[in-house]
Write a structure and sequence with these properties.
The protein has 9 helices and 10 strands. The chain is α/β, with parallel strands linked by helices. A hairpin with a 2-residue loop joins strand 9 and strand 10. Bound molecules: adenosine-5'-diphosphate and magnesium ion (MG). Magnesium ion (MG) binds next to helix 1. InterPro entries: AAA+_ATPase (IPR003593), ABC_ATPase_HisP-typ (IPR030679), ABC_transporter-like_ATP-bd (IPR003439), ABC_transporter-like_CS (IPR017871), MetN_ABC_transporter-like (IPR050086), P-loop_NTPase (IPR027417).
Length: about 260
């Protein structure tokens, strides 16, 4: 499926000295009594491309949702682009302007056109004049190769097209960091590649990305680092070749044996 995607790991891997854009330290997250994240520590540098994998229920979504405060952590600290995520609403808004999320089920507004889905946040959050917001939207729709669908409603598009619209919608916020939560797992197989291709292009352009995905071809070709989670913990992380060829932890080995 991914043979057409170039290997981009010759692109410079962010040097250890690159600016830290996400710092997660000793984070715990509970849903009632249930502990979904346990002592999570994670440092992400500008331009890094991280793939997060692990069994269902291991806390992958919860972790990335904590990074823009769609979930609230109970212990530890999360600092995004120099701003600590606490109850402070101004801080949360500041982080959400920098960090966009692409969801498994697209989360487009069904009663708005593609173009309206894209211009909403620029107009209301970035206070952009409508005409500028529409120009911006068309630029990013062209970028994901779907500009001709601008006047349609999401329900008139295929899943792959809807997900590309969702990515374009995020790009309209000109985010510094993009979070992807299994962006291809709700798609019919023939549509996976068109979405992955857009993600690969973003990676090539240097976008800082954290992607929850089980597309291991994508991980091998794009990721600087693969993180494996199980039972709310980061169990193992490594650069892709070492991660796939020489996993250290028994739980990682079991997981890889099941999906590869
Ligand atoms: P993953 O994305 O790795 O499949 P999640 O982060 O969605 O896992 O969930 C981790 C654990 O937290 C699961 O056991 C899940 O049932 C639980 N969980 C997630 N969201 C909630 C919630 N809103 N309320 C209660 N439990 C939740
Ligand atoms: Mg999930």
């Amino acid at each position: 499926m991914s043979e057409a995607i170039d290997d981009i790991r010759h692109e410079p891997t962010p040097a250890p000295g690159r600016e830290v854009v996400i710092e997660v330290a000793h984070v715990d997250k509970f849903f009632g009594e249930f502990q979904a994240l346990r002592d999570i520590n994670l440092t992400v540098r500008r331009g890094e491309r991280i793939v997060i994998c692990g069994p269902s229920g291991s806390g992958k979504s919860t972790l990335i949702r904590c990074l823009n405060r769609l979930e609230v952590h109970q212990a530890g600290t999360i600092v995004v682009d120099g701003v600590e995520l606490t109850d402070n609403v101004k801080n949360i808004e500041a982080v959400r302007r920098e960090v966009c999320m692409v969801f498994q089920h697209f989360n487009l507004f069904p009663h708005k056109t593609v173009l309206e889905n894209l211009t909403l946040a620029p107009i209301w959050v970035r206070k952009m004049p409508r005409r500028d917001a529409e120009a911006l939207a068309m630029k990013y729709l062209e970028r994901v190769r779907i500009a001709e669908q601008a006047k349609k409603y999401p329900g008139q598009l295929s899943g792959g097209q809807q997900q590309r619209v969702a990515i374009a919608r995020s790009l309209c916020m000109e985010p510094k960091i993009m979070l992807f939560d299994e962006p291809t797992s709700a798609l019919d197989p023939e549509m996976v590649k068109e979405v992955l291709d857009v993600m690969v292009e973003l990676a090539k352009e240097g976008m800082t990305m954290l992607c929850v995905t089980h597309e291991m071809g994508f991980a091998k070709q794009v990721a600087d680092r693969v993180i494996f989670m199980d039972a709310g913990q980061i169990v193992e992380q490594n650069e892709p070749q070492a991660f796939f060829d020489n996993p250290q932890n028994e739980r990682t080995k079991l997981f890889l044996s099941q999906i590869l």
